[in-house]
């Protein structure tokens, strides 16, 4: 993988800010005492060579918006129409095509899984990159090629989301990659919203934004504040989900996975050789944290109500966050943009940490589409494909991601600059876990259904039972990855 560099030559990146016509920045002179220091401002570039691809066409197959509706997956825009994201995507694609003298052929279908094997097995080299639904990737591993075959890509770069992309690096093989040329995983990342009106009415002393900045936004602090939002709105001396205010609203599986991921608890981890293994069953610290969440569910039953949920994907029927039915709301960023009709203003926060000793904030991310390299891939195209993807990811990080953050916070008429800052914590913490994005049915769904939903006392025995089946599944995935060309 290439090494990224810093450069002051911005001519290759025409849409970045430049301060003179030649593409380099003006010198900045600083004076201190009798010393005068001249330094040139530097800006990060993608470091790619100036390449004329002579009309090369990059072919990408992905989902359209008719099935995968819970994330922002647009990769192409036909023209500028005034929509900020549409126009940013259009400018990016035009920039790439002009810069490399290439074409982007991006085709959308309802469900890639319905045509994936047929496309690969046909031997047709028509698609260089196929965007698969996250849960399908490892099931189709025998039809994939190692993405390390691509030239010029740096999967450790921030715009490739290494905490997410990294779990798809099995041994020395890269089976998929979550680059920011798609907003799929940014839009699917989890956060907490808080109702500013209720927060102010309750005169809660803690500034939530400052708690985040000072790394004091922890699970215990979250519960301490959330329970202050509980209120008997109809005056019948009891708290019910449909009529009264809770601490937080959200789906059962999503809520607890947000807290687990936010606390850096992993169902699966990587061993020293970069192979995944089911880790939580033998991790005392992770088990203790899960038990802590179960204890909180028992001692603070009205913070998050889920006793009557019959499906781990469901939220308990209740007075919703947007209707003032809770102080906090669990949302994915894509859902935040749908709150345009909410009466009260709200702010955005990352998932809380386990404790103040945690290194950073982490974000549970909903399943979207992720880039894979089909086995029918033509290796002679590797350098051009990699170069274009790298440039698209870098451009998106520098231009589309800031635009997306503005779109998210402009959901409300009152601009909230603090929430823009909070989105940095959310997006910087995007991470994947095999127990959520690869083997969800036999991992998180089992744990939520059998332990968290009933608030059961069988945590350890359930994890132990899960382990043998999951170990076998992971063994099959590892064996297939080792055979990947």
CATH class of the largest domain: Alpha Beta
CATH superfamily of the largest domain: Periplasmic binding protein-like II
Enumerate the strands of the largest sheet in spatial order, edge to edge or round the barrel.
6-5-7-17-8
Q: What number of domains?
A: 2
What characterizes the major β-sheet? 5 strands, mixed
Global mean pLDDT? 89
> How would you describe the shape?
globular
The portion of residues assigned to helices is 25-40%
Q: How is the quaternary structure best described?
A: single chain
Structure characteristics:
disordered N terminus; globular; 2 domains; 15 helices; D-Maltodextrin-Binding Protein, domain 2; 17 strands; about 475 residues; five-stranded mixed sheet
Overview of the structural elements:
The structure is a single chain. The protein has 485 residues and is of the alpha+beta class. The protein has two domains: 175 residues, D-Maltodextrin-Binding Protein, domain 2 (3-Layer(aba) Sandwich), CATH 3.40.190.10; 231 residues, D-Maltodextrin-Binding Protein, domain 2 (3-Layer(aba) Sandwich). 33% of the residues lie in helices and 16% in strands. The chain is built from 15 helices and 17 strands. The strands form six sheets. A five-stranded mixed β-sheet has the order 6-5-7-17-8. Strands 12-15-11-16 form a four-stranded mixed β-sheet. A two-stranded antiparallel ribbon has the order 1-4. Strand 13 and strand 14 form a beta hairpin. Helix 1 packs antiparallel against helix 11 and helix 11 runs antiparallel to helix 12. The longest helix has 28 residues.
């Amino acid at each position: 993988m290439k090494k990224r560099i810093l450069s002051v030559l911005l001519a290759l990146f025409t849409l970045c800010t430049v301060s003179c016509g030649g593409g380099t920045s003006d010198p900045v002179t600083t004076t201190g005492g009798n010393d005068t220091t001249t330094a040139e401002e530097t800006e990060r570039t993608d470091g790619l060579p100036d390449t004329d691809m002579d009309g090369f066409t990059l072919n990408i197959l992905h989902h359209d918006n008719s099935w995968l509706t819970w994330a922002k997956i647009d990769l192409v825009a036909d023209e500028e129409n005034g929509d900020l994201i549409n126009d940013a995507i259009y400018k990016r694609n035009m920039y790439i095509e002009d810069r490399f003298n290439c074409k982007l052929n991006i085709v959308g279908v309802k469900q890639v899984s319905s045509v994936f094997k047929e496309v690969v097995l046909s031997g047709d080299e028509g698609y260089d990159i196929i965007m698969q639904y996250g849960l399908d990737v490892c099931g189709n591993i025998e039809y994939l090629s190692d993405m390390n075959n691509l030239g010029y890509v740096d999967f450790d770069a921030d715009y490739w989301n290494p905490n997410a992309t990294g779990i798809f690096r099995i041994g020395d093989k890269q089976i998929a990659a979550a680059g920011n040329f798609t907003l799929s995983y940014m839009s699917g990342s989890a956060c907490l919203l808080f109702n500013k009106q209720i927060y102010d009415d309750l005169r809660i002393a803690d500034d939530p934004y400052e708690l985040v900045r000072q790394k004091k936004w922890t699970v215990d602090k979250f519960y301490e504040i959330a329970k202050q939002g509980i209120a008997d709105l109809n005056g019948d001396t009891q708290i019910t989900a449909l009529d009264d205010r809770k601490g937080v609203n959200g789906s059962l599986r999503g809520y607890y996975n947000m807290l687990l991921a936010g606390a850096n608890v992993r169902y699966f981890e990587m061993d020293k050789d970069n192979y995944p293994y089911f880790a939580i069953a033998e991790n005392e610290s992770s088990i203790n944290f899960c038990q802590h969440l179960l204890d909180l569910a028992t001692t603070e039953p009205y913070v998050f109500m889920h006793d009557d949920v019959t499906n781990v994907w469901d939220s308990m029927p209740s007075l919703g966050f947007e209707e003032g039915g809770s102080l906090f709301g669990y949302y994915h960023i894509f859902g935040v943009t749908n709150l345009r009709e909410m009466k009260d203003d709200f702010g955005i926060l990352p998932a809380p940490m386990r404790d103040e000793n945690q290194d950073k904030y982490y974000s549970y991310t909903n399943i979207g589409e992720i880039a894979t390299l089909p086995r029918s891939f033509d290796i002679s195209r590797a350098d051009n494909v990699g170069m274009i993807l790298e440039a698209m990811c870098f451009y998106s990080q520098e231009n589309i991601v800031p635009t997306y953050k503005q779109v998210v916070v402009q959901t409300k008429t009152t601009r909230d600059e603090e929430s823009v800052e909070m989105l940095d914590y959310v997006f910087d913490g995007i991470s994947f876990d095999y127990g959520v994005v690869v083997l969800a049915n036999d991992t998180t769904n089992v744990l939520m259904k059998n332990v968290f939903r009933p608030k059961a006392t069988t945590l350890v025995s359930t994890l132990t039972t899960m382990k043998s089946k999951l170990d076998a599944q992971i063994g099959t995935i590892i064996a297939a990855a080792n055979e990947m060309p």
